[in-house]
Design brief:
Helices cover 4% and strands 52% of the residues. The chain has 2 helices and 41 strands. The strands form 4 sheets. It has a 24-stranded antiparallel beta barrel. Strands 1, 3, 6, 7, 8, 9, 12, 13 and 14 form a 9-stranded mixed beta sheet that branches. The chain is mainly β. The chain has a domain of 212 residues: Immunoglobulin-like, CATH 2.60.40.
């Protein structure tokens, strides 16, 4: 049920008149882009990288070998070229990949030869671990709609570990290891891997059911495809279809082609996953302990409405298996960003995304799923049910979601409606619109967000992204607009971008992430990436950027000059030297810690930061950071140390500790953050992760353990234990528990 106030219409909302002039601007830009695009012939030509799909009657048996005779029928790929370290040169180790399908499943057989098989880097068996990417691995990316924007990506290593992710907008924002909302690593597809090490290297067999993928209704079909092998000890990346150094495999516009795909069968494309949960909890409040037993049932349903559209329905949604958030320290005036980890909100999340592009300077995300089913303090709000329709119809991208929450925490339930439409234009460009409505089940409060957005890419190296948005809230009629524009140019040696954002005082996307409003901010960034090829140096990254922020009256609020010199070594280590020069104007006191407030005024201060990260592919790795600085009218010293050990292929551990020493005229204090992780994998299907974290700013010690058993693809059993200990009155009383919970959750995938 969708709640809209009486008398609502687009016309009386004021959106049309507010957006008319900017829309003309967007139309002009789109026209110019079309003219430019027509003058650029084959900007990303991969015509020479084509494979012809091979249809077989019966696929191979997955046993970690390529001895099945059917593999010899598959299309062969055996020519890989380096991106790193020597772009364009043949790969130093031979790789053979055979590709075939039986209509229901796509199979890839990988034979990765190695001249020194004893030196293979393979210690990770857990699913979706980022460490897989720093080890020996094989990656395949599939652009099933051949739209040069979106794709499915699958990664495995010599131990058969699995990592999968959805890619939107070619992973924009992920360059040089940067995180990006356009890469959804938390998505879990249904697929299988069998791998083993051999005297000559390693072998992997990959099976990807067609029901896991979305693709158009056509016969025959043509997909974008690219293959990559990472050789861990050499820090070497080799591709089938070459990718220039500024980009990664997510640059699907540079992928090759897998054509003549015929007789593809997704069955009825109906997946039903019922689940059952049971457990017990103890919650202590005001000295009283409340014991409770939980038991519940629910279900998730996935149905292919068409070849390009997928309907997801969830009832009595439960996220007992979701991992806990990593603790963070906040010494700023603004909210911290925590990533989404709940399954229902992860698949096709990129289709709803409208926001700023730089994850290190996150200005705004107009839709932020953690506003649904979670309070501002992270407490769970029950979700009664929800439905989501996502996919493609031709060049049109459709994303629609409706979620209903129940009453909790002395608040009534809420309904969330999100509608997103975009249309692909030219090779890599698109225009779109977003509408969000949040409404109380009881009462009259509502909040709406309207937006139009664009991504224009007239050149392979040049991209313009922007949005224009308005919010609507009762009793607010003016000052509720926002605009954002980013222009980025990337080459082999340079990255240059400019960014501008204007968020008016009353712009309030309650279902979004907006750390700061009532500001105008401009950022200019210049980065040079020379490759000296001496002394084991791979890439130097000197950069400079300036961030300039004013209020709505154009009075300077803050300014930051950022200087950095980064050095990446051939062995994967990274050294970084950074200096920031800050100006901050406070119009009101800033309470940095209880009892410690910084007075209004203008402040100049500087930050020096030195950091060194060893290669994450090493069995013992470490990260070190020291940052002495002035801080408003005082001083501050930050330290961070992380040490990890991959003891065996099944067992690894990591410990980290950070400390912030703050000394201000009004008081001094220290903030500590410590974390300890243990990961154990009996096999790629049975994994255990345990984490314990202490945050002195919240005076809280939390521990969590999660055992996951994937007994068949898409079906899991989770055993989860969570505990929080806290005693704000006695720092020595951390062993006193506040609440604890033990939960068992089982899911079973039924598909046709």
């Amino acid at each position: 049920m969708i709640f809209l106030p009486k008398g609502f219409s687009l016309r009386n909302s004021g959106l049309l008149s507010s957006l008319r002039q900017p829309c003309l601007l967007l139309g002009t830009i789109a026209t110019l882009t079309a003219i430019l695009g027509s003058q650029i012939a084959a900007q990303e030509d991969s015509e020479s990288y084509k494979l012809r799909a091979v249809l077989v009657d019966e696929g191979p048996t997955l046993d970690g070998s390529l001895e099945d005779a059917v593999w010899q029928l598959g299309a062969l790929v055996d020519m890989f070229v380096q991106q790193e370290p020597d772009e364009g040169s043949p790969a130093t180790e031979r790789t053979e990949v055979r590709i075939l399908h039986d209509g229901e499943t796509l199979y890839l057989g990988v034979l990765a030869f190695d001249s020194d098989p004893q030196a293979l880097t393979a210690t990770e068996m857990r699913r979706d671990s980022e460490r897989i990417l720093s080890e020996d691995n094989f990656q395949v990316i599939l652009d099933t709609f051949r739209d040069s924007r979106s794709a499915y990506m699958f990664v495995t290593n010599p131990l058969g570990a699995m990592l999968d992710q959805q890619v939107a907008n070619e992973g924009e924002g992920s360059r040089s290891g940067r995180t990006s909302s356009n890469i959804n690593r938390d998505w879990d597809g249904v697929w299988e891997v069998a791998a083993k090490q051999t005297p000559n290297g390693w072998v992997a067999e990959i099976a990807i059911p067609m029901i896991t993928l979305r693709f158009p209704e056509s016969e025959p079909q043509s997909w974008g495809i690219n293959l990559m092998r990472n050789i861990g000890r050499k820090n070497e990346q080799a591709f089938w279809s070459p990718i220039p150094k500024p980009y990664s495999i997510t640059r699907v516009s540079l992928a090759g082609t897998l054509d003549n795909l015929s007789s593809l069968n997704r069955g009825r494309d109906l997946r039903f996953t019922p689940f059952v949960t049971g457990g017990a909890s103890q919650i202590r409040s005001a000295g009283v302990t409340d014991d409770a037993v939980q038991r519940d049932i629910g279900m998730d349903l996935k149905y292919g409405v068409s070849a390009g559209l997928n309907l997801d329905v969830t009832i009595n949604t439960d996220f007992a298996q979701a991992e806990v958030d990593d603790e963070q320290i906040n010494l700023t005036r603004f909210a911290l960003f925590y990533p989404e980890k709940r399954d229902f909100f992860l698949e096709n999340a990129g289709q709803f995304d409208v926001g700023s592009t730089d994850a290190f300077n996150r200005l705004a995300n107009l839709f932020f799923t953690r506003r649904i089913g979670l309070s501002d303090t992270g407490e769970t709000v029950p979700i009664i049910g929800g439905a989501r329709l996502t996919g493609k119809v031709g060049r049109n991208n459709i994303a629609l979601m409706d979620v209903q929450t129940g009453g909790a925490l002395q608040e009534s339930g809420e309904n969330f409606l999100v509608a997103r439409y975009s249309r692909n234009i030219l090779t890599r460009s698109k225009v779109g619109a977003l509408f969000i409505n949040k409404a109380k089940t009881e009462g009259t409060h509502y909040n709406r967000t309207y937006a139009v957005d664009m991504t224009l890419a007239p050149l392979a190296s040049f991209t313009v992204t922007g949005f224009l948005a308005k919010t609507e809230t009762p009793s607010i009629s003016t000052g509720d607009m926002a605009r954002y524009l980013n222009a980025t140019w990337v080459s082999q040696s340079w990255q240059i971008f400019g960014e501008f954002a204007d968020f008016q005082d009353n712009f309030n996307p309650e279902v979004g992430f907006l750390p700061r409003r009532g500001i105008r901010t401009t950022k200019l960034h210049f980065e040079w990436n020379p490759r000296p090829d001496i002394w084991g140096l791979r890439v130097l990254s000197p950069m400079y950027n300036i961030l300039y922020t004013t209020d709505q009256q154009n009075r300077l609020v803050s300014r930051r000059h950022h200087f950095m010199s980064g050095t990446q070594f051939d062995n994967g280590a990274y050294l970084n030297i950074m200096y920031n020069r800050h100006y901050e104007r406070l119009d009101r006191p800033f309470t940095v810690r209880k009892g410690v407030a910084i007075a209004p005024g203008a402040y100049h201060y500087g930050q020096l930061r030195l950091s060194f990260n060893s290669s994450q592919a090493r069995r013992i790795y470490y990260n070190l950071m020291l940052a002495p600085q002035t801080f408003f009218n005082g001083t501050r010293v930050d330290i961070l140390a992380t040490v990890g050990a991959r003891i065996t292929s099944q067992f690894s551990t990591q410990a980290s500790y950070s400390r912030n020493d703050i000394d201000l005229p009004v008081g001094e204090f220290k903030v500590h953050l410590a974390a300890f992780r243990i990961d154990y994998a009996l096999s790629p299907k049975i994994t255990l992760r345990a984490i314990s974290q202490y945050n002195s700013s919240t005076e809280q010690w939390g521990s969590s353990a999660r055992l996951r058993y994937t007994y068949r693809p898409g079906s899991d059993v989770y055993l989860v234990y969570d505990e929080v200990r806290r005693d704000p009155t006695d720092p020595t009383g951390l062993l006193e528990f506040r609440d604890r919970q033990l939960m068992l959750k089982a899911t079973y995938l039924l598909s046709r």
